Amino acid sequence: MDKIDSAIRYGRMIARHLQGELTPAEQEELQQWLGEDENNHKLLETFHDEEFVQSGLSTLHSIDKNEAWDKISRKLDLPISIRRRPGYRAYWWAAAILLVTLSAGGWFLLQQSVTTPGTQVSVTRTHSPAEILPGTDKATLTLSDGTTINLDSAQNGQLASQGAARILKHEDGSLVYKVSGKTGEEIIYNTVSTPRGGQYRLTLPDGSRVWLNAASEIRFPAVFASDERQVEIKGEVYFEVEKAFDKQKRKLPFIVQVNEMKVEVLGTHFNINAYADEVAAKTTLLEGSVKVLSGTSQHELVPGEQANVRPNESVKVLADVDVEEVMAWKDGLFNFSNADIHGIMRQVSRWYDVDVRYTAEVPARTFSGKIRRSANLTNVLMILEKSGIHFKVEGKNIVVSP
């Protein structure tokens, strides 16, 4: 029997055993398998632990099943033809059961590919009974006169008007600015902001589309000026900028102001991460071209490049950055590549609206892997505890210890 057939067979057998559905012959075969390796017996005992099973089932909802299958396929050294066979992919969980057995405590393989070689899974069951849920689509719109509108609870349809702009909430929950008639000369500003635990998307008056990550903000004119388009942001924002022209058919620049940094574009897709608690403001270009200016320093990016700007320093450019990692937040993922625990926990803090406290200096380890942002906080911490670092949830606080 090859590895994948064995995985599927014993995976099914364990499941049927737990439901009391094994035939006498199958029961005898299972007993023989249990006697072949002490770890096999330990695995079966683990699945009798109701708390373990419940947390495991909950975690399964948070993982990328295709990636899990690919990881398991590589671990089992399966041929490419088998890896791509649809029927086998449906039984990735069965293969994972065998992997748990083979790796003695490798339940982590079921969860994600956050890897720290040589460490032992240690899930501390001290989390708060009140589960902390992931963030959702929510934001606040502040009009020019200071009026605020809670966008996640607002009804669909027209919410307000600002000069020549009508502000609409679409059925998909996004905010859209529609400009009609004479725009006039007066520039009035609106602000959309997300709290910790929130994200939002909107369409600006020129048709450009914007996505806000948690704890972020964009300030913009309700109607853009005739000679330029300028916005200000905080936190992390992704832009898909529409090309625009003035009456003389000249291209109108689109300018993003972030503290002392300025990003100038015409029509392009890019992401800016400029949280105050991060070391540098990062502008990553996906399509088109942008110019990043800071003080007397400037640099024009090409797709795949990232400009890093630190206070009182010139622009530094990184080539061939992992765009998938940068844009993971927009795609509903945490994507870590050699990330330290402090950087990871800053993301966790923003998305789950929690504060993080460290009891001591944590080991200098890095993490790589993907976790769905739809996962509950407990599941994320279970995955991260693979490193040997421990977490305790106290209300809306996470205590991190070595």
TrEMBL record:
The chain crosses the membrane at residues 90-110. Pfam families: FecR (PF04773), FecR_C (PF16344). Keywords: Membrane, Transmembrane, Transmembrane helix. GO terms for molecular function: sigma factor antagonist activity. Residues 191-291 form the FecR protein domain. Residues 334-400 form the Protein FecR C-terminal domain. PANTHER family: PERIPLASMIC SIGNAL SENSOR AND SIGMA FACTOR ACTIVATOR FECR-RELATED, PROTEIN FECR. This is Iron dicitrate transport regulator FecR.
